[in-house]
Every structure is written in C-alpha cells, then in structure tokens.
TrEMBL record:
Residues 226-258 are annotated as: Leucine repeat II (LRII). Transmembrane segments: none annotated. It comes from Musa balbisiana (Banana). The keyword Transmembrane does not apply. It comes from the Eukaryota. PROSITE patterns: GRAS (PS50985). This is Uncharacterized protein. A motif (VHIID) lies at residues 174-178.
Length: 457
C-alpha cells in the first residue's frame, strides 16, 4: 500500500489559515453533516498531538472532512487532512488504523477517478501500482480452507443447509440454484447432509450462474466446468447422483438469462423441488438508486427496480424454498459521505475479528484484508453501475420478499443448534441471535450477517 509521505511533502505545522481553523475551539455553529467536532484546541504537528487523533471516532471524522474536501475540490484542506491521516493511520497498524488506511486509499482513488483535487489525482497517478489492490486467485482447496477460518460465510452455509435439508425431506429430485460469491464452497457440506438422509439421497441438479461482468472477491483460479467436474466426482464418492450446469448470467441484468433457462427447465422436469440458495450475491443486483425500468405488466408501481423484477420472476417459478443470506448493512446512499459513515461503522468488524484467526504478516491475512479493501474501494470510489457493493439491511430485504409474494419460514431449533455448534469452533466474540423468524450472526454483539428462509405465500 502506498505511503503518502513518499509522494506528498511533509507539511509544516499547520498554521491559523489551515486545518487548525477547523479544529480550533470557538463558539460558531458547526456543520451538521460531519456531526459534532470531537477535538479541542489547535492541531500541532507533533507525535503527542497526533496521538490524540488515534481513536476510531476521530479517524472517522477526519475521513468525513477529507471526503467533503474532495467533493468540494478544496485541495489545500484535502492535502492537510491527508497528511494527518497518513501519519496516524499506517496500513500495518492496529485494526482502526488499517480500517482508516483502507478508506483513505479509497478516497484517493475516488479523487483520481472523478478528477477532483488535482493534487490528489497526481498522487494517485504517480503511485498507481502501489495503490492497486492485489487480489489473490484461489485454488478450490485454498478457498475452502480460507472460508473455514471464520464464520462470515460458514454461518449462512450452516443455516441454509439445515433449512434446505428440511424442505426437501423425502423428495427424490432436488434442483439447487446456487447464487453465491464463494464458488459453490457450500455445496460439499450440503451434499454430505443429503447423502445421509434416512430415505436415501436425492438426485441433485446443481445450477450456478457464471457471472459475465461482476467479478468480486474471492476469485477462483479455475473454470466453472472444472469446478463442476470436481463437485460431481465428490457427490459420486458419497453415492449421490448429480448434474452440474453453468448458465452465463449476471446480477447487472437481474439474472435474466438464468431465469429464462429455469423456466425452460421446469417445462421438461416436472416434479423436482426447486431450491434457490442466495448467499451474499443478491445485493449486486442494482436497486432503485441506480435506476428503475418500466414494467411490462399492469402492476403498481409502473416502475420497478431490477431487484423487484428478479424477485417477481423468482416467485413465478414457484420455488420449494428460497434462502437469502447477506451482510446486514446499508450501502445504498447516493451521498458518498453517508455511505462512508455506514461502511466505516460496519467494516471495522472484519478488521477487528481478523486478529482472532490470522497472525500479522501471514499470507492469508493479506488475502483477507485485500478482499475487504476491494469492498471499501467499490463503495467509496465508484459510482453508477460500477458501484456494485449495494448492501441493504435484513428489514429491507424482508420488505422486498413479502412485497413480491413470499412469506418467511422460521429456522427450527435443530437448525439453530447446528449453527451454534459451528460457532463453537471459532473465537468467543462470534455469536448468534434470533430476530423474529430469522438468524443473525454477531461480532461482540454487533449485527454482521443475516440468514432468512422464504416460501411462496
């Protein structure tokens, strides 16, 4: 990661016409956008004074002022805040410092892409190679081992697998549509679970979406054809007959080609149970802040977001079960400062949690934090259709599901017990709670990932 002091000369102690004016105690009204000012007195360029900024709340406020300076094209103020942030938030520091450093890099990238603050554009241009995030390409075995390190994904796997097994009990043919970001890493455990049914395993038809434009981490270093072959062989080793199919489709068009292929499949495969397993991929479908499309049917409202269009199309397939698992945060604000606040107050969790399962300097830790950094950069630096990280909270997804004809189905005590047993394998900070009929993964009491299950109403 770039050390900004290599490209930006160190500033002298900031005088009365610089950043200190912002941080000086006075009785004038403060802007509401940045909230209340947490500092008192004049900022001096000394380690002791800089140390007073080394709290999460102060770093967040500095990032907000930096973002506002970029949006207002105030290069002088941006350079001064940049100097402070660079000195208090090293990329190899504690969890709050690494978090702040990732947001700082994302804001620099935003300035470079939007052309605001020419000084920052020059900084990014002369150190582009250092600014670039280097995402690891995983083998299937490496990815499986990597995912097992933390319950971030395993929580949703365990909850969804338990719900799926209950929904297809006694059914001879099960068609699973896996919409996930982790390249079918959930499937071996589910295959094992179905292989051990008292009545014998079902025939499994597994369909996945081969993403055509959206490429978020983790990245797999093999084709889906090769991955499918391995999964079919694994299923055979468990005495489970399975077919694997890839349909090129993408969240950017609400998986239109996938939905059409599923409709065709239903015409020739009557009697199979259709399971749609959505693991942290639906938030890549554009929502209302990206744009809406005209409805071709006589429905109200006449304009639909792609998310609504997808859920309506999914409901028309009469699925046996739909599982929806995703991160419980809201990254849909049009205003970058509000997005920054929301992302900063959610994405501290992976930086805080990583210390419990990966040592400093380890290769896997670099992979892990590069993936989080990619998310931060996409949320902050990108706009329009390029900004694909558009999380919504559980409550908003529940509204969407109910509005398109689904009803929630609760997780059984057995399912909750399976999830708790999995969490026992991880650090004490991880927990689980019930929210109405749903399950929520927590870290130190803060919501992280939700798991929900749905039936046609």
């Amino acid at each position: 990661m770039m050390q900004f002091t290599r490209s930006v000369p160190l500033l002298p102690p900031i005088g009365p016409d610089g950043l200190s004016l912002l941080l000086e105690e006075d009785d004038s009204p403060k802007p509401s956008l940045g909230g209340s000012w947490p500092w008192r007195g004049r900022l001096l360029a000394s380690p002791k004074t800089l140390g007073s900024f080394n709290t999460a709340s102060c770093m967040e406020q500095l990032l907000i002022h930096f973002a506002n300076a970029i949006e207002n094209n105030d290069a002088t103020l941006a350079q001064q805040i940049l100097w402070v942030l660079n000195n208090i938030a090293p990329p190899d520091g504690d969890c709050n410092q690494r978090l702040t450093s990732a947001f700082l890099r994302a804001l620099i990238a935003r300035a470079s892409r939007t052309g605001s603050c020419k000084m920052l554009t020059a900084v990014a241009a002369c150190a582009d190679a250092e600014l670039a995030l280097h995402l690891h390409r995983f083998s299937a075995i490496d990815l499986a081992n990597y995912i097992d390190l933390t319950p971030w994904h395993r929580f949703g796997y365990a909850a969804a697998n338990a719900a799926i097994a209950e929904a297809v009990e006694g059914l001879p043919v099960v068609h699973i549509v896996d919409l996930s970001t982790t390249h079918c890493m959930q499937m071996p455990t589910l295959i094992d679970l179905l292989a051990n049914r008292p009545e014998g395993p079902p025939f499994i038809r597994l369909t996945v979406s081969g993403l055509t434009t959206t490429a978020a981490p983790p990245i797999l270093n093999m084709t889906y054809d090769e991955l499918g072959s391995r999964l079919v062989n694994f299923a055979r080793s468990r005495n489970v007959a399975m077919e694997f199919r890839v349909i090129p489709s993408d969240p950017s068009d609400a998986f239109d080609s996938l939905i059409e292929q599923l409709r065709v499949q239903q015409l020739v495969s009557e009697g199979e149970a259709l399971i749609v397993n959505c693991q942290m991929l639906l938030h890549y479908i554009p929502e209302e802040t990206v744009g809406v499309i005209a409805s071709t049917t006589n429905v109200s409202p006449p304009m639909l977001s792609l998310r609504t269009l997808f859920l309506k199309a999914l409901r028309s397939l009469e699925p046996t079960l739909v599982t929806v698992v995703d991160e419980d945060a809201d990254f849909t604000e049009c205003d970058v400062v509000r997005r920054l606040r929301s992302a900063f107050n959610y994405l501290w969790i992976p930086y805080d949690a990583v210390d419990t399962f990966l040592p400093r300097g380890s290769e896997q830790r670099r992979w892990y934090e590069a993936g989080v950094g990619w998310k931060i950069e996409n949320v902050i630096a990108e706009e329009g259709v390029q900004r694909v990280e558009r999380l919504e909270r559980k409550g908003r997804w529940a509204q969407r599901m109910r509005a398109t004809g689904f009803r929630s189905v609760g997780f059984t005590d057995d399912a909750a017990g399976e999830v708790k047993s999995m969490l026992d394998e991880h650090a004490a900070g991880w927990g689980m709670k019930r929210e109405e009929e749903d399950l929520m993964l927590t870290w130190k009491g803060h919501n992280v990932v939700f798991a929900t299950a749905w039936l046609p109403a």
